[in-house]
Q: What sequence folds into this?
């Protein structure tokens, strides 16, 4: 796929985050030493002027609407933190469940855009639905429609928006969450437009955060912001009715590519959730073909009696995006390993799979894994699709064993089966909920569209205190 | 000042916000009619896969940290909604006070960047300080330092970032609020860097929202996001230590102009709060010179006995930015009138001033005001600075009365005095708090830097139930 990054990145920027952090944390900040009396007086003027403005507008309809929306979050024990005993207000539940669902980088992927659509959408939907005791049918409907909105906006802006630095899951996710929650709240068209408009001012997420907790924070923050946008709209809060498409609206501000037909074409006929996929491996999707290829190598080795020690070198050829996203050569922990195609290859070759356990700090730092990943020599070949991988094991003595993976397991062409999804679910939840409860929860998931009330499912998904 | 907008705006985009709103609000969304059984099954797979991922990570340290931060907001009656009797959690107070402080568009302006710095920073600081019973000294320090951070980042990116469509108050405000709250929480350098990093993923605000409630929502949402970023960092949440400056970090993602020296130069010596200004008029800063000029015309008219009916035409020459931001010719209400230089001229000529009252729906729609604003003929002249205005009243019979305002009242060169600020404060607060209480609050503001505990000031700023 054609890519061009419009403005050359500046790789020589000074470390301004650190410089500002030192300034903020350590500047003495006292009139006598840190700054002049004039600066200090200006601070008082600034504070007083701000305070007067805030008091003055205290009864404005904008504040009445916003306060009414905030009050919908009280009292606070409204929705479940999944996998735990705590209940929190629904906006915080959206945030927290959005974070946890993306923490393992094991969630779903809309492959056309690399959006992980459920994180923002399902997290906001379940939190709101649990509090409002919505039906399972309404939850499914909101999910389909919310995911359609975020992925269609993503289709319109991808790849320029993503190339520029946006974590597209968070930046489009706010819109998807707002759409889903507006739907669940049964807002009318006008209020729904306002919900989308308020959400349009809150795109979340920069790719620089990959490998830190702020990456999974993105879908969580998007879920929260989308839910709040719908709640604000339900209380009469207003936004521009052209907040997405106007010249100074969201889409033109965060992307120079905007293919509007991706939004309007076949709307209500083609549903983007049809193109959703699920990860068999607990890491960035672009590593999957490489893991799959190395797992296939492992099978060949087993069949032919080749020991791992005989491997001199793994030659890996992949699309440039793979190394751009997951080129960490020496990951120091599990989180970093999720962005290391080198670790992915070592895991595939050693275990034949790569679930969350294979991204534990312990395994990432195991001596044999470190040795093996250092044998991986990755080169860029943009004639290879980013969904494929070309792997050759070069053995001592010079023999070459070659595997080419066109479509990795979990891709649209080679999807996980329902049974594989159930096995993946058990692998994730048994330790926290027990196997029996996990099975019951799986049953509740399949029956969700017919259930009268989603609260029973939510209760099953929580752990005893 | 030189400006260039990198990519031509698309003024012919379809109305996708409305199209999506209709789709979300009205699509039947039932398996039997709205979409195929395959789509519905995919929705169940998506939901189950998401749920398993969320449960699976329920005990991850990222979720522990995020839940701990959310729990800091409970129980909820932590901080005052200014001018009202309610108390809410501190994050909601930051949101609400940020909204109200910018609702009248009457707050402060950092003229180099058109940032309204107090909205995000002071709103987050006072909410946190009230809950933690911080000293007034710590509040002032946090205010100076938070405003320095947001305005320095703004200086680095302005004007490209703003031209592109970002409401720079919200986009840099999250960082300023995070810095101020990190300071107030006495986070160390490492945690402060994380707070700035988490905030960097949450720039808020598009210019398309001007004229709607979502414009004042921007500083509110930035205040809330910045406060939460600091709370998250205090509980061990992590982000990239290069989240601002990296090629895929915030600044390079949202701006193609990044002058790093604006951040690092004279840090701790030059304080951007010194360049803050306060509005005498309750509307966008770029209208002020035009209002001031028309108010001066009014004085000339009064002196010379010229009646308003004698005015045939008002010729207004201003920088292109003025019409770009405030070119609404036929405002239908007070909120829109704040973005109408035409209404501003009519108010200046009629009243000699333009406080909140002169932007009421009633006055905006008064027949004489409508007649007068339609007499204003605005033309662009980029040789005139955006802080100036050239106004000529053409009278019946052909006489021309000319006023040129180089620096409007409220500008850095012609600042409001402390006494004028106090009068402005009374004008905003007397109706809500009473004159005596407003005077006491003014006293508390001037004494803030010496006060042991900010809660007394916060209590004065609330209304009785």
A:
């Amino acid at each position: 796929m054609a890519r061009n990054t419009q403005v050359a990145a500046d790789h020589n920027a000074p470390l301004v985050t650190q410089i500002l952090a030192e300034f903020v944390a350590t500047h003495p900040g006292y009139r006598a030493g840190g700054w002049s009396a004039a600066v200090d007086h200006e601070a008082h003027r600034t504070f007083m002027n701000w305070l007067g403005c805030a008091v003055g507008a205290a009864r404005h309809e904008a504040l009445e609407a916003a306060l009414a929306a905030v009050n919908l979050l009280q009292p606070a024990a409204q929705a479940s933190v999944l996998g735990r005993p705590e209940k929190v207000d629904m906006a915080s539940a959206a945030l927290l469940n959005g974070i946890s669902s993306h923490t393992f980088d094991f969630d779903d992927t809309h492959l056309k855009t690399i959006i992980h659509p459920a994180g923002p959408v399902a997290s906001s939907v379940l939190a709101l639905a649990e509090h409002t005791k919505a039906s399972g049918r309404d939850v499914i409907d909101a999910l389909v429609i919310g995911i359609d909105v975020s992925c269609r906006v993503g289709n319109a802006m991808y790849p320029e928006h993503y190339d520029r630095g946006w974590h597209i899951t968070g930046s489009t996710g706010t819109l998807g969450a707002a759409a889903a929650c507006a739907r669940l709240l049964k807002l009318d068209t006008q209020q729904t437009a306002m919900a989308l408009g308020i959400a349009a001012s809150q795109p979340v997420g920069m790719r620089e955060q990959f490998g830190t907790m702020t990456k999974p924070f993105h879908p969580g923050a998007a879920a929260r912001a989308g839910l709040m946008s719908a709640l604000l709209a339900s209380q009469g809060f207003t936004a521009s009715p052209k907040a997405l498409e106007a010249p100074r609206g969201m889409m033109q501000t965060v992307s120079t590519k905007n293919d509007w037909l991706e939004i309007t074409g076949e709307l209500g006929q083609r549903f983007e959730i049809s193109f959703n996929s699920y990860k068999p491996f607990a890491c960035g999707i672009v590593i999957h073909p490489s893991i799959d290829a190395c797992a296939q190598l492992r099978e060949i080795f087993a069949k032919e009696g080749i020991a791992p020690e005989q491997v001199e070198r793994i030659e890996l050829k992949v699309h440039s995006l793979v190394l751009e996203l997951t080129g960490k050569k020496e990951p120091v922990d599990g989180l970093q390993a999720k962005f290391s195609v080198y670790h992915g290859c070592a895991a595939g070759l050693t275990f034949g799979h790569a679930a969350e356990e294979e991204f534990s700090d312990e395994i990432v730092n195991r001596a044999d894994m470190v040795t093996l990943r250092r044998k991986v020599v990755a080169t860029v070949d943009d004639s290879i699709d980013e969904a494929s991988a070309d792997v050759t094991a070069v053995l001592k003595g010079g023999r070459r064993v070659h595997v080419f993976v066109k479509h990795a397991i979990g891709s649209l062409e080679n999807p996980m089966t329902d049974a594989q999804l159930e096995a993946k679910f058990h692998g994730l939840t048994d330790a926290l909920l027990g196997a029996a409860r996990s099975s019951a929860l799986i049953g509740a998931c399949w029956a969700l569209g017919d259930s009268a009330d989603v609260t029973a499912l939510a209760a099953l998904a929580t752990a005893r205190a």
